[in-house]
Amino acid sequence: MPRGTEAGPAAVDAYLAKVPVDLRRALQELRAVIRKAAPRAEEVISYRIPAFRQNGMLVYYAAFRDHRSFFIGSVATRRTFAAELEAFAAGKGTVRFTPERALPTGLVTRIVKARVVANAARAAATRRPPARPPRQKRGAGAAPLAVARAGCV
Fold first, then answer.
1. pTM
2. 136: nearest Cα among 144, 127, 128
């Protein structure tokens, strides 16, 4: 596990317990939507905020004094949904929302599912086949390995 990362729903529950009640409800709803969209994802605390990971980090979310943030975790995915996210104050990978202007659950679901697919594709592309042992040269003048090691040749 990467340094500074705590795993498990209990760590996320502890984070949410520290969030003021009026902010907590929106984060709990967002958490439920993410869980439903990525049921195999693991909940963690990373960068001191709740996150989900599956074949790498999927998304993060957090509460701040005047807003909540949903961190998409990928500039490419953010670009894919740019038109739908235009109504929300955002950075490269961040979407800010408030109780008055909540993120649509359908949009969050599509973003999370897109991240699951992207992470799975990246993981599949980086998997290497198991290394094969080096092949021995066999030919007219090559002695069998055991004979060569014994000094018989």
1. 0.76
2. 144
pLDDT at 118 over 80: yes
pLDDT for res 52: 96
Percent of the chain with pLDDT over 90: 44
- Chain centroid to CA 25: how far? 23
Say which residue, 56 or 88, is predicted with more confidence: 56
- SS3 sequence of the chain: CCCCCEECHHHHHHHHHHCCHHHHHHHHHHHHHHHHHCCCCEEEEECCEEEEECCCEEEEEEECCCCEEEECCCHHHHHHCHHHHCCCCECCCEEEECCCCCCCHHHHHHHHHHHHHHHHHHHHHHCCCCCCCCCCCCCCCCCCHHHHHCCCC
